[in-house]
């Protein structure tokens, strides 16, 4: 029997290098969620529905790619010396680098073409970008249970990963603020307009360049276990006390069919989906709320989101000690309280009290980061030692999150009553994120009496049958080999 002391700790260099492996994705996601709608509607002057449809195309393609990449990365070996997860990660990184800059640039060959030509131009690069983004995300997350079997260290890796996610957002908003204050020739208007397109172009090029350097460092330092060499299977096996078990304490392996019969797979999926909806909706519509409802200066589309992520960053640093004290489920409830408080405050904000938006940003940042980091940690606990199917789990959970977020945004855009209805975004930011926290609370209540790493009896029966079938085939093959030798 292995003891917890026999689990080898990851070196600090490995932990830090892993944490920056998603940095390019984080930088591009920050710009995608925070500025796509406002860029398309105010700079490119697309109508609300068209801007929403382009975001939906991205979210739906991301959802589908998450699902199929999750399955594909579990079944492929990749480049043996690199590892299958890092192989997919590298390919996805190249797709992101080659597509994302075009989304926030003028159409190079169709600037004066019909609207539909421009629409399909942007849609093409959006699809390519989300294929690469999904490939990086799924395989970076799937590395966590491969790198360590210690649950506390997994929580730490998720916390460090989210800390760099927050840093990426701080960098995005900080650079954007500098672009407004150091190089703003368009001072005649307090709102964004087509003359501000060069700021978005410069921002995207800076972010992609920085993110590419971090990904290069990640691939040099992080070492993935060699899954091509079958002799290493036993030594890489997760110790029994860290593996997933049935309610009867039986260690099991999980196929994708078994996951579909596991109730916690759906429960944690909903919890993660709601956390993402909260974060995504606030990130997308805070800039619009700032400019169109509160009528603040346009540089606040960088400053207010910056405050959100500074507060989120400091909260992420506290996640490990708090988790040790009260546990993940209680932490998630704490995040809900902060998030609902922020949404309630938004309801009472007016132009005359716009400076209070900084207080709102702090509450929203603490609530969103707490829920998201905890949801990631719950996913890692759900997978436990079942790294053989971690790609499918992360892909499926990301599928529901991307699809639901895209549908929510399109419905919000479609229901926009008019260009002059400034109070619309106040209503959205009050009720949509708060509704997501209510759903998350109800689902979390169903998890209170259960342990996250336990498998249901039905799942264990399916796994046992699968293992028995494999054993029979191996016995038949061995018998055939003996007959041949004889």
Topology of this protein?
Blueprint: H1 12-19, H2 23-43, H3 48-75, H4 84-103, H5 115-147, H6 151-182, H7 197-221, E1 245-246, H8 256-259, H9 263-293, H10 300-317, H11 319-326, H12 328-347, H13 357-383, H14 390-414, H15 424-445, E2 454-455, H16 457-485
Parallel strand pairs: 1-2
Helix pairs in contact: 1-6, 1-7, 2-3, 2-6, 2-7, 2-9, 3-5, 3-14, 4-5, 4-7, 5-14, 6-7, 6-10, 6-11, 6-13, 9-10, 9-13, 9-14, 9-15, 10-13, 11-12, 12-13, 12-15
Low-confidence stretches: 1-5, 230-243, 246-251, 481-486
Range of strand content: under 5%
The count of β-strands is 2
- Give the oligomeric state of the chains in this entry, treating copies of one chain as homo and distinct chains as hetero: single chain
Cα radius of gyration in angstroms: 23 Å
Mean pLDDT: 80
Percent range for helical residues?
over 70%
Shape, per Cα inertia axes: globular
The main β sheet shows up as: 2 strands, parallel
CATH architecture: Up-down Bundle
Structural class: mainly alpha
CATH class value? Mainly Alpha
Distance between the termini: 39 Å
Q: Tell me the CATH topology.
A: Growth Hormone, Chain: A
Order of helices and strands: HHHHHHHEHHHHHHHHEH
């Amino acid at each position: 029997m292995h003891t917890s002391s026999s689990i080898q700790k990851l070196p600090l260099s490995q932990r830090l290098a892993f944490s920056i492996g998603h940095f390019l994705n984080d930088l591009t996601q920050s710009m995608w969620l925070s500025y796509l709608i406002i860029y398309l509607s105010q700079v490119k002057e697309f109508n609300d529905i068209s801007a929403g449809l382009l975001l939906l195309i991205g979210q739906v393609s991301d959802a589908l790619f998450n699902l199929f990449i999750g399955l594909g990365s579990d079944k492929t070996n990749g480049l043996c010396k690199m590892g299958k997860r890092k192989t997919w990660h590298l390919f996805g990184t190249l797709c992101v680098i080659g597509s994302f800059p075009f989304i926030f640039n003028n159409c190079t060959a169709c600037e004066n073409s019909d609207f539909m030509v421009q629409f399909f131009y942007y849609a093409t690069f959006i699809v390519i970008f989300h294929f690469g983004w999904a490939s990086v995300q799924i395989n970076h997350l799937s590395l966590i249970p491969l790198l360590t079997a210690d649950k506390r260290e997994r929580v730490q890796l998720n916390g460090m990963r989210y800390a760099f996610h927050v840093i990426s957002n701080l960098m995005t908003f900080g650079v954007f603020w500098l672009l407004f204050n150091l190089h703003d020739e368009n001072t005649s208007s307090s709102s964004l307009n087509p003359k501000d397109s060069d700021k978005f172009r410069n921002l995207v090029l800076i972010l992609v360049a920085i993110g590419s350097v971090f990904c290069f460092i990640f691939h040099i330092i992080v070492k993935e276990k060699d899954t091509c060499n079958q002799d290493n299977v036993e030594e890489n096996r997760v110790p029994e006390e860290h593996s997933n078990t049935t309610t009867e304490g039986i260690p099991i392996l999980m196929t994708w069919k078994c996951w579909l019969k596991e109730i916690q797979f759906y429960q944690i999926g909903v919890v993660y989906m709601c956390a993402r909806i909260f974060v995504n909706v606030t990130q997308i519509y805070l800039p619009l709320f700032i400019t169109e409802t509160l009528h603040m200066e346009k540089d606040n589309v960088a400053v207010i989101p910056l405050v959100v992520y500074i507060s989120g960053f400091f909260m992420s640093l506290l996640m490990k000690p708090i988790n040790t004290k009260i546990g993940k489920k209680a932490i998630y409830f704490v995040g809900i309280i902060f998030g609902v408080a922020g949404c309630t405050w938004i309801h009472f904000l007016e132009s005359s009290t716009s400076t209070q938006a900084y207080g709102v940003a702090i509450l929203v940042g603490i609530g969103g980061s707490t829920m998201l980091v905890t949801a990631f940690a719950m996913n890692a606990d759900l997978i436990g030692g079942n790294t053989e199917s971690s790609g499918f789990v992360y892909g499926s959970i990301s599928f529901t999150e991307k699809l639901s977020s895209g549908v929510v945004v399109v419905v919000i855009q479609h229901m926009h009553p008019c260009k002059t209805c400034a109070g619309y975004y106040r209503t959205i930011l009050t009720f949509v994120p708060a509704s997501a926290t209510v759903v998350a609370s109800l689902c979390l209540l169903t998890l209170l009496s259960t342990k996250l790493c336990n498998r249901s009896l039905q799942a264990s029966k399916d796994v046992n049958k699968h293992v028995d079938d494999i054993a029979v085939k191996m016995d038949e093959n061995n018998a055939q080999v003996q007959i041949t030798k004889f």
